[in-house]
## 1
Amino acid sequence: MNRLAHWLLAFGVLYGSSLQAAEAERCELITLADVGWTDITMTTAVARLVLTDLGYRTQVKRLSLPETYQALAHGNVDVFLGNWMPAQAQLVDPHLQSGRIEKLQTNLPTVRYTLAVLEPAYKAGLQDFADIHRFKDELGGQIFGIEPGNEGNGMVKTMIRENVFGLRDFTLVESSEKGMLNHVERAQQMGRSAVFLGWEPHPMNDRLKMFYLSGGDKYFGPNYGAAQVNTVARGGFTNDCPNLAQLFRNMTFTIAAENQLMSSVLEGNTNRRRVAKKWMNKNPEMVNSWLVGVNKRSE
């Protein structure tokens, strides 16, 4: 019997509960969305391990952010652990208001997402969104984003299109989380600067000499893009799958936990399942807290 199974027994996770009987048959297979960010990929990997030990089957769909919300709204995906707010408000709010998507929990209450800059330009005076245009030559007229369709990319594109902060002559470079980080790390090694989408939790905050820019409140929110991450589900999920809804309401993380999960992957460990299991075995108290009031699925 593995350690997670011991935890389940310790918390009275029993077969045949009335709550389990009330679950719809469609809850046997849970589909989670993954947009490819390391933090969401790893929290999703952890969730899959917990669900498997509880007797559920799982699958993951790799989707862009807009595709994720469309899939949730149409019931083609059950749960997404990466609803960053307020940055994603434009994508998700209409569906929340209509009831086609429901919020289950804030799984990480204090995060950050906005534009950041490397140390050389920051020390030279690039400390606010309004400063970026003055450093066009040093930056090569480029701002580095992540995958196409990401809401942060969209906000930068709007600023460029509408010449907000004098950014008309800039270009947004879209690639991926890994591609963006590779470019920024090379720039740091060469003593150059770069403006890019930055967020925490993420090991980039330790690996890069980076500073978040002020002045982007209208686009990324106040306090240097302070935000929260929510777990959202398709509309009707709580009614259909009350046992699972309880699990996802219990499932919260910390910045330290997510940094630990991401660091191993970014350091080259490609077996995400193994990384997730190792982390869970080292953090039984957190896993235990997720299982309170949750029942194991009947065979």
## 2
Amino acid sequence: MTAIDHAAPAAHPTAGQSRRLLMCGVVAGPLYLTVTAAQLLTRDGFDSARHPLSLLSLGTFGWIQIANFVVAGVLFFAGALGMRRVMVGGVGRTWGPRLIGFFALTLVWAGVFVPDPSDGFPTNSSVEAAPTMHGILHSVAPVLAFLVLIAACVVFARRFFRQGRRGWAVYSVGVALALLAPDVLIGRTGFTVALAAAAVVGWTWVSEIALHLARSAGHHRGRA
């Protein structure tokens, strides 16, 4: 069978549920990025060239980014459940969805444990303050998120190569490299910008994978 993924038959009672779960993953990336972009334009004192996006969780309107992390995480997790339902055969059918699920949980983690103030944001915050436990716990989230996403890219790339979908395979490898790129700039000018750009690429990739699988599931339903 040459289709990219076997989908549940249309007559199966959970077929529609699977597609709705996948659509949650489709929405998650654009929603997170749109809400974040809106805050970049409106939050006083935030400089995307110096401040990590996580710092938007602080200050009077920090609840917006906290909710953004949690909602995106829940939606991506739902998308991972949908992937698990429709990826019923082939390489990566277990670890592909599982890694996306782990990635989703890191976003919820990042929302629950907010970062410490840094580099003058929020305004008037002390940059000399001692690290707090919630700040330390938050710092684990982006590291895990990127590592898990890189692993997911590799798993899906193998799956796509095996299926002859070389365009998707190359795209997945490219995303993995983009997620590794910020490591070159750690401690240097441009690191936060590279980190944000890599997040855009990674989050978008997950949503596009979910959309691809949702379309595949819909295609199989239409042929049933």
## 3
Amino acid sequence: MKTIKRITLWAMTFILLFATHSYSQNIRGIIKKKTEKAIDKTIDKIDGKEKKDKDTEEAVATQEHKPVSNFINGNIVFSDDFNNEKHGEFPSKWTQMSGTMQNSQIVAQGKKEGVVQFVTSGRMKPSFKNDDYLGNSFKIEGQFYFHGKGNEAYTLNLMNTKDVYRAYQITIRGDGIVPAGTSSQYARMPYKSPFPGWRTVQLSFNKGVLKVLYNGYQLINIPVLKKSEDKHITEFTHLEVSALSRSGNYGAMINHITIGHKGLPLYKKLVAEGRIVMHDILFDTDSYFIKPSSYPAIDRIVTMLQDNPKVSIKIEGHTDANGSKASNKTLSENRAKSVMYYLINKGIAKNRLSTVGFGEEKPIDMADNEEAWAKNRRVEIVKM
């Protein structure tokens, strides 16, 4: 019996010693890891390797960038994604009103893309010959970047040169929308959006009804837009975009702006922009015979010229870069002439029309893929 007790005592002592040794090893391991981390951090500071603020252009490259949905499905009045711009220059499709802006390039999810960067706070507007292109029914879509540092904001200024008191502002913040610049009407997102990151804003205006979507959520729905009881707003003339930007690594950035106008009359678009880009006038490959499916598009031009007898136009032909430059130039000239002869056969006087073919000389998309080629194959109608 005594022997059994002695054996039990020795066994318990051995287990206790082993457990104590293991516990000590664990404690020493934890202390060692913490010490090594502290030493590494100190070395990083000494070597100047301490991590920089996340909100640098390098950090922008890692942010999730959701593609813009097909929100605008009517006639596109204006569109710019800043991809075909020279780094450091002012965006070519815009007019500077105040502040300093420049084209820049960032990398999002491994893909390079263009942005316009506000070096300082400022305002700019799409370049049109005539600031009267919005009217009473239009849509605006854009993407805006937020660093989550301090007082950041963008503003879509819906202007009205016919009545300055009927202009309206939509201010975009990191977590919502402020209509007409009043904080009392601050419409916030139902969840906290991550910082830093892009925000997609989609605005729809139709004869006084204003709706604004923020990352897919409808935050603004105003059935009768007004500033006071006697000043209902039913139309606007043009758009101006402004940004409140901080210096250094926290500059405001926009990577996409599109303006669409459902059913915009061709004449109004021609006057506002000086030209109409027609992607729905189609030809067979290496052919200048117009496809029958293109007739409705050209008939719209016929109607515009009949309704505006003092207007003369130049028809420009453009191709993609497939094939030789010489053959593409000849093809584009013949396609422009085909459109002219169609218009003449519909009763439009020849002295109101002229043609030119540029071949592949003036692409609107520099990418080397089918989507870009389709954009570059086009006919443009230019006001003389």
